[in-house]
Amino acid sequence: MSTTFTIDTSTSRANPTPAPMRRLTVPKLRARKADGVTREPIVMLTAYTARQAQLLDQHCDLLLVGDSLGQVIYGLPSSVPVTLEMMANHGAAVVRGSYHAVVAVDMPFGSYEQSPAQAFESASYLLKQTGCAAVKLEGGAAMAETVAFLVQRGIPVIGHVGLTPQAVNVLGGYGPRGRSEAEAEKIVGDATALDAAGAFAIVIEGVVEPLAIALTKAVACPTIGIGASAQCDGQVLVTEDMLGMFERVPRFVKRYEDIAATISAAAEKYAAEVRARAFPGADQTYQPE
Ligand code: KIV
Fold this sequence. Notes:
Layout: H1 26-30, E1 33-34, E2 37-38, E3 42-46, H2 50-57, E4 62-65, H3 69-72, H4 84-96, E5 102-106, H5 116-130, E6 134-136, H6 144-152, E7 157-162, H7 168-171, H8 181-197, E8 201-205, H9 209-218, E9 223-226, E10 234-237, H10 239-243, H11 259-275
Helix pairs in contact: 2-4, 4-5, 5-6, 6-8, 8-9
The structure holds 3-methyl-2-oxobutanoic acid.
């Protein structure tokens, strides 16, 4: 991975845009998998804000502005109520905060399913408003025509199969998929249809491991697993999950930090100092010259 640069973290809060440099590109990422082999797995994390993007950018190949921001940022019960405007605002912030990774923005529920033309209108809006390089949409064979329509018109697409959270009302929950033979067969059909339609990568979410391995072998483009398998061509997690922001996380999440405890402890200290009139101290107050 090209991490041979250091990020400028001294930029002011008002203008956190780092110095520009050449980003990774979609064709370069797609080319990571050749003849069924991916020597360098694709590293992907979600990002929703400029500062978060600044911190993640140098470590990631792909930053996903996921519609999981509905739950993570807005406290919504699912990703279903997320709007195109929310995605555009957060997408623009993430593009401003990054200069290395490819930024992909999720197309929210209701913005693409109706027709390829509706999808093009929504996706082109996201590209124009944010500067992102790609979009991601959920659904398999039923979305293949739409994926081909977008790709042929200059919009790179990441597919998303298996557990597709926007379909929670049809699926009846967020449990793993592909345990029955019929379901596994359908998911293989979904992934191969997206691959043939020109998706440059496919997120495989919440499927049993043998199916994730079979899917990775079945498609030419890279697969990016979440709750899938280490044998996928890359991995993605929701950043707040892996940072330990939430008490309850799915089984497939590994917590690399306990950021909730760190935040809570800092807020507790701050509250105690305010109540004791110990903050602000001499270092934090201005005096006449
Ligand atoms: O919305 C999201 O964050 C996602 C990832 C979990 C793949 O789709």
